[in-house]
Each structure stands twice: as structure tokens, then as C-alpha cells.
Specification:
Distance between the termini: 156 Å
CATH superfamily of the largest domain: GAF domain
Number of domains: 5
Helix content: 40-55%
Number of helices: 24
Strand order of the largest sheet: 1-5-6-7-2-3-4
Radius of gyration: 68 Å
Shape: elongated
CATH topology of the largest domain: Beta-Lactamase
CATH architecture of the largest domain: 2-Layer Sandwich
Length: 903
């Protein structure tokens, strides 16, 4: 078991010892002969593939093994490779192209194999082989093997593997030595093959370098020529440059370009000729007999024409038309040409030439001809190749020129299309802006002005008009946008009317307006659009053309404007200077504007209806508010008046009784006191009981105080009587209509009613009323309503003073001023002011609105000043205004016109 796996070093002494073993097993002569034969065949061949194929076959036959293979390591991978050669018995699997990587190889075998040592295994399952190595061998059905390294120089190139698959095998020393010798010779063969490959590579590289150098020179020349060709975009410059460059680079006497016509005739179109030689282009113009001479030559002679002749025309370009690329003639006198053809060539001074076809795509366009005139010339392949490259570039230049022309044409078309697209986009954008402007405005005049101006700008026309039909289908121009220098339509219309009348009268037809009325605007009612490119190219009558000339129109578009389903009018665009080919997008734009004008008209009509309804609703609401406020105030004042009148009536009865009897009580009291005086005078000595009662009732005090009480009662009765009179004066319930009254009396009665609010309270001083009455005549007015105004204004003044106190503003001497006077001779002014907190401007502008109040919720309903305004302004034709500054009090100016008689 110890000999199951052996690593054999290669030493000279060991080789000799092993040699004797081979002699014992195979026979020295037979073994030496077999080894020599294999080595000889290895050395005979320089093909490494053949060497390996022969070796694996013969080694397997000699060793009678199941497989012999050559395993090569990949150069760039760590100990990974594949079998590239093998000879294997038919019953075993092939190991070729199987990629392997032994993860244990570097640790177990790499160092030994790099030293040139062999590994022989008699049985993979007996010995110290690692599991991973056994798994690899099992993959190829190996039971025993010999592995010898293949060393190329100093590097481990691969392995020579001898596999025994059927059973274990005890390898003889001679067999191991045999494998070792074969591996060494294979390593030498690898090194020799590598060396030979390097020599071949160096030789090839040297030859390639020389060829590349020469080719580089030609390529450089080709590149320079091609670059010069590509610098130009026009064929004339390209051909002129090409012929000059080719003649100079090839050191030729003439370079010419021949172009075929569609009928396969042709001519020289470009030429570069050395000094001293004739010009073929001049010759073809000056000597037309040359073609006649050429045509006399036989077709055989003309089979290789270097110049223009009728043969090319007759044969449609000869073989050049059948994709022949070039023709080369080194010497015309040794080319087998006929005397006739040689004479023609001598006329052209040609001794040697190269002719290259110029193809435009797949079609033969012409020929590139290079001539050597002074001597014969052996044209080199590189020169011919150079000319074919230039010819190809000339063909490319032709295609480029044609493509450029097509591109230019296409670019012009695209530019026009782009311009149309740009204008269309601008028009679309402008159309959107115009539509937006139309929709933003609700004023018809603004809509028409905007639309006509925008249409004239967008279409770049001379005139745009809007014509409106009346109910009877007559009509008028209602809007116009006009370019400078043209006559406005309003100045043209009178002359048009006169001309139309005269023309119609002379023609015996209805007038234009009558025609419109009779036909109900012609075809426009059906939505037809009129597009006229030139009035003189239509079938219009002469009178109608005269009418259009009067309008200065040469071309026009007219589109209908519909308001809902009804034809409302016409939108027209006129070109005056010249005819115009109206584009579809222009007509469409005008139609869209016409549609939007119809929408604008509907919107304007709707707005007008809405505004009218709004005004009606506003007026109705105002009337309702006024009615409501009047009803509330009337009810309030009626209730107050009835209450005041009832209270005054109820008080008036008892107070009249008291006031009427006070006089009698006073008289009776005086009489009783006189009688009592007489008793005291006649009976000075009273009884005790009388004296006692007199002292108890304090008769002296009663006699002194009772008259005073009666006097006070009389004064109180007078006061109550005055109050009742004031209540009756304020309510005026028994008075209707306007009557002359004393305004002072109404003011005083109001102050008397409000007396309790003027008295001092716990949180404020008494309110002082300063009256500055002027001399006022009786004023004709509604007395109760005027008292109501005084009540509202004075109540607000008292509220302002009380609010100033509650808001923290201390007023030491709260006052209300009332001043009356006659101003401007016929107006009564009642001025009522206070020194309260005042009214801010924002509130002051709304104090006369119904239900607007500056007071806290629950303190007022906002009707007092509104009703006062109605009473003064609407009922009496006067005026009421408020003047105030926050913190500086408030003034109310009430002006009433004087009326001497009751209206």
C-alpha cells in the first residue's frame, strides 16, 4: 500500500536504473525502438497539433492504457485548464474540453510538478490521495494513472496524463521513465514550436511593417486627397481639386474626368494636364472629327477605350456599365491594339493609362482617366488601388452633392413647413389669446375692437370688418381694423351706397339692401364661407368688381357670425395690394374667431339680461327693504303715537279735574281760614279741648303750609298739562298730511319726552342741552315724521355720550347742541351735535343703509337713520348728512326746503 502512489524525481542515475527495468519488462531493443520511434516522430514535425495527436495515440498503444491525454493550464487562471488532446478506448468517456480546477492542486502538486517530478498512482482508493483529487479522477473514470509535467522553458505548461480506467495497475519503473522521457521531448517540442512561432511572427511583423509603411504612405496620400475632396461641397471644386492632386501625386501627364450623358454619349468635363500637352477638353470642342475617326475603328479595337467615343454610347458604357471597376494599359504599343486605335490614342498623346469607373450609387456616372504620355509605365497595384479609392470618394461626393441638393430642397421645404408651423403655432397661440380677450371682456364694443385688431395682425391683412344685420336683413359696419394708408369703411360706405343705387337702377335690379332682405343674407345663413383669392379671376360682374375696387379689395375671406342659431353678421378680412392664396389654417382661424364672436355676443346678451334682472332684483329688494323699514317704523310710530295719545288722554281727564278744582279748593281753604280767624277774633279764649287739638295739629303750620301745598299742586298740574300737550304735539295723531308747524315746538316736545335720559346717572354726568334757536317761519312738513327724525338723531346723540362714558372715555361736561337757522333764503337748517366718541369713516359711509348699526347687538336694529334719511330726502326733498371725526363728536346737518303753501 505504500507503493500505491509514488512521486518520481528525474535524475540521470535514476534514468539509467529505470532503463534496465524497461529492458526487463519490454525488452531493451523493443523498448528502445518504440521510444526512438515516438521521439523521432515528435522531432520530425514542427506542427505542435500533429505532435500531440501522434504522441497520445502511440503512447496509449505502447503502454496499453485506457486513456492518454494532454491537459493544458490556462495562462491567466490559477491552475485551471482543460484536456486539449487525447486517445481513449471506445468504452470510456472522452475528457476533451472538460474544464477542471483542482482546489488542492496548488497545495499538493504544483510545487512538485514545477520541479519536473512525476506522480504515479496504482489505485486512487489505496494511498494518501485527497478526497478532492479522488473526486476529479472519478469524474473521468480513472482508477490508476501516471501524471508527468510538460515544462515549456521554466514554466509548467500542462500535464501528460496516462489513465487506467478498468482496474488498478502497478506501474513499472520503465513505464514511468518512458512517460518521463516522452514528457521531456514534448516540452522541447513546445519550446521549439514557441520559438518557431516567434520567428514567424517576427518575419510576418517585419513584412507587415514594410507593407504597412508603404500602405501608410498611400493611405496618407489617399487621406490627403480625400480630405481635400471632402473640403468642398460643390462638384466643380471637388473634380478640379481631385484631378490636380492626382496628377501631382502620381506624377502623371494628364488626369481627366469623363461624364456620361443619359443616352451614354459623353464628354470630358474636368482635366489637369502637364505643361506641353494638349487639352482634351479643348480638343473635343475644336476637333469634332476625332469622334468620327474613333467611330471608324472596329468594336474589337474599342473594347478598351480610354477616351470618349461612340462605342461607349453604342454599348451603354461598355463593360464599365457592367460593374467593371478599372482598366490598365502599361504601353499602347504592346497591348495588341489595332493601328486605327493606336492612331486615335496618339492623337490624344496617350502612351499608358489607367481608367477607373465612377459610380453614382449603382449607376455608372463616368470615368476617371490617368494618362502617361511621354513613355510607357508599369502601373503599380497600389497606384491602381489608390485611384479606385479616389474614384469611390468621387462617387461618394456625387451622392453627397445630390444628397446635399436634396437636403437643401428638403430643407427649403422643411423651412417653409416650419415657417408655416411656426406661423400656425403663433396663430394658434394668438387665437387662444384673442379668444381669452374676447371671453374676458363683456363689452361688445371692446370685443369687436379687440377681435378686428387681432385678426388683422394675425393674418397680416389690410382690413378687417364686422358687419351686422338688422331685423329686416339690412345692415351696417359696426367695427373695423385698418392698416395705415387705406380709406376707412365709414368714408367708403356713402360712396358705395350711391354707386350701388346707380348700378342697380341702370341694371334694373333690386338694390343691395333689398337683395339682402329678399335673400336673407344669401348663403351665409347656411354657414357658407366665401374665400376669394383674386376678384379679377372670378365670375363676378363688372359692377360688383367696381364695388370691390371702391372698397380697395383684391382678395378677401368672409365668414358668418351666428348668435346661437341666428345669423347675426359677417366677419371679413381683406387683402388690398395684391391677390392672395389663402391657406386653410388662415380660413380656419377666421372661422374660429367668427365662432368666438358669436359666443361673445351670446355672453354679452346674457350679461345684459343678467344685469337687467340684477337691477330689477336690486330695486325690488330696495323697495322691499324700504317697505319693511317703513312698515316697522310706521307700526312702531303708530303704536307709540296711540300709546302717547292714550296716555295723554287718560292723564288729561284726571289732571283736568284736579287742575279745575284746585282753584275752588284754594278759595274754600281761604274762606275756612278767614272764618277760623273770625272765630279766634270773636272768641279769643278757647276751651281747653280746642287748644289741645290746635296744638296737636299745629294749626299755625297748617295755615301757613296749606296754601303752599295748593300752589305746588297747581304748578304740578300745570307741568302735567304741559307734558300731555307735548305728547300730543309729538304724536300728532290727530293730524294728517303736510301742515305748517313750528319746528322748535317739535324739538322741545322731543326733548321733554327724552328728559329722563338727560338726567344724571350713577356712571355719568347730566347731559346739558344747549339750544340756539333762530327765527324760523312755520315750515310745511309732516309734523309727526319730523318729530320722529328729531327723536332718532337725539337718541343717537345720547347713546354716543353714554357709550363714551361706558367705554372709558371721561367727558366732564357732556353736551348736545341744537341750532336752527334759515340759510340761502329758502332752506331751514337744523344742526344737532354732540361731544361724544364720534363715528369712524368706514362706518360713517354706511350709517344711512337699512339695518346697519354701529351699536352693540340688541341695542339697535339699524332703521332709525335709514328712515330719517327717507323722511328728509324722499318725503321732504331735503338733505341729511353726518360730519364726524373719531374722538371729536358728531354733527348731523338736516336741511329742509321751505314751502309757503301746503302741497
Amino acid at each position: 500500500m505504500e507503493n500505491a502512489s509514488r512521486i518520481q524525481p528525474i535524475q540521470p542515475s535514476e534514468q539509467q536504473e529505470s532503463h534496465s527495468d524497461v529492458t526487463s519488462s519490454l525488452g531493451q531493443n523493443e523498448q528502445q525502438k518504440a521510444l526512438s520511434g515516438v521521439i523521432a516522430r515528435i522531432r520530425e514535425s514542427l506542427d505542435i497539433d500533429a505532435i500531440f495527436k501522434i504522441t497520445v495515440t502511440e503512447v496509449r498503444q505502447l503502454l496499453k492504457s485506457d486513456r492518454v491525454g494532454v491537459f493544458r493550464f490556462y495562462p491567466d487562471l490559477a491552475w485551471e485548464g482543460e484536456f486539449i488532446y487525447e486517445d481513449v478506448a471506445t468504452e470510456w468517456d472522452s475528457a476533451l474540453t472538460a474544464k477542471l480546477r483542482d482546489h488542492c492542486f496548488n497545495q499538493e502538486f504544483a510545487g512538485l510538478y514545477q520541479q519536473g517530478r512525476i506522480k504515479a498512482i496504482a489505485d486512487i482508493y489505496q494511498g494518501n490521495a485527497s478526497d478532492c483529487y479522488i473526486q476529479i479522477l472519478e469524474r473521468f473514470q480513472v482508477r490508476a494513472n501516471i501524471t508527468a509535467p510538460l515544462i515549456k522553458g521554466k514554466d509548467l505548461w500542462g500535464l501528460l496524463c496516462i489513465h487506467q480506467c478498468s482496474s488498478p495497475r502497478e506501474w513499472e519503473a520503465s513505464e514511468i521513465e518512458f512517460v518521463q522521457l516522452i514528457a521531456e521531448h514534448l516540452g522541447v517540442a513546445l519550446q521549439q514550436a514557441d520559438y518557431l512561432e516567434q520567428v514567424k511572427l517576427q518575419s510576418a511583423q517585419l513584412a507587415q511593417a514594410k507593407a504597412r509603411e508603404k500602405a501608410a504612405q498611400w493611405q496618407k496620400s489617399i487621406a490627403i486627397t480625400i480630405e481635400k475632396i471632402r473640403q468642398f461641397l460643390d462638384l466643380e471644386s471637388i473634380f478640379r481639386t481631385s484631378t490636380a492632386e492626382l496628377r501631382q501625386m502620381l506624377n502623371a501627364d494628364r488626369v481627366a474626368i469623363y461624364r456620361f450623358n443619359p443616352d451614354w454619349s459623353g464628354e470630358f468635363v474636368f482635366e489637369s494636364v502637364a505643361e506641353g500637352w494638349i487639352s482634351l477638353m479643348e480638343q473635343q470642342l475644336q476637333r469634332p472629327e476625332l469622334k468620327e475617326n474613333v467611330s471608324k475603328c472596329s468594336a474589337k479595337d474599342l473594347a478598351k477605350p480610354p477616351v470618349a467615343d461612340t462605342y461607349l454610347q453604342d454599348t451603354e458604357g461598355d463593360s464599365f456599365g457592367r460593374c467593371e471597376v478599372y482598366r490598365v494599359c502599361n504601353d499602347i504599343y504592346s497591348a495588341g491594339f489595332s493601328d486605327c486605335y493606336i492612331k486615335t490614342l496618339e492623337i490624344y498623346q496617350a502612351r499608358a493609362y489607367v481608367i477607373i469607373a465612377i459610380y453614382h450609387g449603382q449607376k455608372l456616372w463616368g470615368l476617371l482617366a490617368v494618362y502617361q504620355n511621354a513613355r510607357s509605365r508599369d502601373w503599380e497595384k497600389d497606384e491602381v488601388y489608390f485611384l479606385t479609392q479616389v474614384s469611390t470618394q468621387l462617387g461618394v461626393a456625387l451622392q453627397q452633392a445630390e444628397s446635399l441638393k436634396q437636403v437643401q430642397v428638403q430643407a427649403q421645404k422643411l423651412a417653409k413647413a416650419a415657417e408655416r408651423e411656426r406661423k400656425a403655432a403663433q396663430r394658434e397661440k394668438a387665437l387662444s389669446a384673442t379668444v381669452e380677450k374676447i371671453r374676458q371682456s363683456l363689452d361688445i364694443a371692446t370685443i369687436f375692437a379687440t377681435s378686428t385688431e387681432e385678426v388683422r395682425r394675425l393674418l397680416e391683412v389690410d382690413r378687417v370688418t364686422i358687419y351686422r344685420f338688422q331685423a329686416d336683413w339690412s345692415g351696417e359696419f359696426v367695427a373695423e381694423s385698418l392698416a395705415p394708408g387705406w380709406t376707412p369703411i365709414k368714408e367708403i360706405v356713402p360712396a358705395m351706397s350711391t354707386m350701388v343705387t346707380e348700378l342697380c337702377r341702370s341694371a334694373g335690379v333690386a338694390a343691395a339692401d333689398d337683395y339682402s332682405q329678399q335673400t336673407q343674407s344669401g348663403n351665409f345663413s347656411s354657414g357658407k364661407t366665401f374665400v376669394i383669392k383674386d376678384i379679377y379671376s372670378t365670375d363676378y360682374s363688372i359692377p360688383y368688381i367696381s364695388l370691390l375696387e371702391l372698397m380697395e379689395a383684391r382678395a378677401y375671406i368672409i365668414v358668418p357670425i351666428f348668435q346661437g342659431e341666428k345669423l347675426w353678421g359677417l366677419l371679413a378680412a381683406y387683402q388690398n395690394i395684391k391677390p392672395r392664396d389663402w391657406q386653410e389654417d388662415e380660413v380656419d382661424l377666421l372661422m374660429q374667431i367668427g365662432t368666438q364672436l358669436g359666443v361673445g355676443l351670446q355672453q354679452a346678451e346674457l350679461l345684459e339680461q343678467t344685469q337687467r334682472q340684477k337691477e330689477e332684483l336690486t330695486q325690488t329688494l330696495k323697495e322691499l327693504q324700504q317697505t319693511q323699514s317703513q312698515l316697522i317704523q310706521s307700526e312702531k310710530m303708530a303704536g307709540l303715537g296711540q300709546l302717547v295719545a292714550g296716555v295723554a288722554h287718560e292723564i288729561n281727564n284726571p289732571i283736568s279735574f284736579i287742575y279745575g278744582n284746585i282753584t275752588y279748593v284754594n278759595e274754600h281753604t281761604e274762606n275756612l281760614f278767614k272764618l277760623l280767624g273770625l272765630y279766634q277774633k270773636q272768641y279769643p279764649q278757647a276751651t281747653g279741648e280746642i287748644q289741645k287739638q290746635s296744638a296737636a295739629v299745629d294749626l299755625d303750620f297748617i295755615s301757613d303750609d296749606l296754601p303752599k301745598i295748593l300752589t305746588s299742586m297747581k304748578m304740578g298740574a300745570d307741568r302735567i298739562s304741559q307734558l300731555v300737550l307735548s305728547l300730543r304735539t309729538f304724536s300728532r295723531i290727530d293730524e294728517t298730511g303736510m301742515k305748517p308747524i313750528d319746528l322748535h315746538e317739535g324739538i322741545d316736545s322731543t326733548l321733554l319726552i327724552l328728559q329722563h335720559r338727560l338726567q344724571p346717572k350713577t356712571n355719568c354726568f347730566a347731559i346739558e342741552v344747549v339750544k340756539e334757536y333762530g327765527e324760523l317761519p312755520p315750515v310745511v312738513c309732516y309734523a309727526a315724521q319730523m318729530n320722529q327724525v328729531f327723536m332718532n338723531v337725539l337718541n343717537n346723540a345720547i347713546d354716543a355720550l353714554e357709550n363714551s362714558a361706558t367705554s372709558g372715555k371721561i367727558i366732564d361736561n357732556p353736551k348736545i347742541w341744537i341750532r336752527t337757522e334759515v340759510i340761502e333764503g329758502n332752506t331751514i337748517l337744523i344742526w344737532i351735535a354732540d361731544n361724544g366718541c364720534g363715528i369712524p369713516e368706514m362706518m360713517r359711509s354706511r350709517i344711512f343703509e337699512p339695518f346697519f348699526t354701529t351699536k352693540q347687538p340688541g341695542q339697535g336694529i339699524g332703521l332709525g337713520l335709514s328712515i330719517s334719511y327717507q323722511i328728509i330726502v324722499e318725503k321732504h326733498g331735503g338733505n341729511i348728512k353726518c360730519v364726524s371725526e373719531p374722538g371729536n363728536g358728531c354733527e348731523f346737518w338736516i336741511e329742509i326746503p321751505m314751502k309757503r303753501t301746503v302741497s
